[in-house]
Amino acid sequence: MQEHRHTVTSDDGLKLFVREYLPEGPPPQRNLVLIHGACEHGGRYVEFAQAATGAGWRLLIPDHRGHGLSEGIRVHVGRFDEYLDDVRLHCRHFALDPARTAIIGHSLGGLVVARLLEADGGLVTAACLLSPYLGLQIRIDARTWILGRLLTWTWPWYRFRSRVRAADLSPDQNYLEERKKDELINRSVTAGWFFAVQQALREVHDDAARVTTPLLVVQGDQDRVVTPQTTIDWFHKISSVDRQLEILPGHLHELLQEIDRQQTAQLVLDWLGKRVPIA
Question: Which top CATH class is 2-275?
Fold first, then answer.
């Protein structure tokens, strides 16, 4: 597997970091874009990259603005659509042919991809959502909610510590130990970011029927970060004729970091591969 690193300048001047993975040999004829979750970065998907390139994909994993090696205030956006604009930018920059391109979104990335499919379904030929952030399971007390809302008007960059517990992400202890040492993991978000996401959550459910792209949704039934039933409810509102919902028993949130992640990766790559064949 070859790895190349790129920097793409966003429409508002931020330098966005992108990892590109290629199989050895002739350039692949199909593209796969992976949009990662909140507070993490693309460097955590090397094992999946090996599986994807082994299946004949060119894989691109951009770090969100404010994440990983990309510039920007850590885990902050003024508008949720900044994430959508960045994905569109990457597709243009790397000249991705929609007919030869699929996209995966995990958690926050799943919300980004869902909103993209609702707004711009012609961007890709097929898509997959993994534990999409379509409803938050973690409780936010009323006092924190009100304070955060007030801060969005006066100090949107004010930071709140993430309520996500590492133990709720995966049962793989080796993964959890590595995550503790990862200096690129963010452990707080801004008030502005949180309420931009809340607005996107309202819109993603209102616009679900606009989704017509072939779509695979994979959700763990023991997810303690996002709400599995909300994912199911959204899935049943979309208009895609070619769609599949996979509920994985006993699985938590980080489906590509679970103990059986190789099987999940194969499920995803096989499904997308049938919609974007090698030739």
Answer: alpha beta
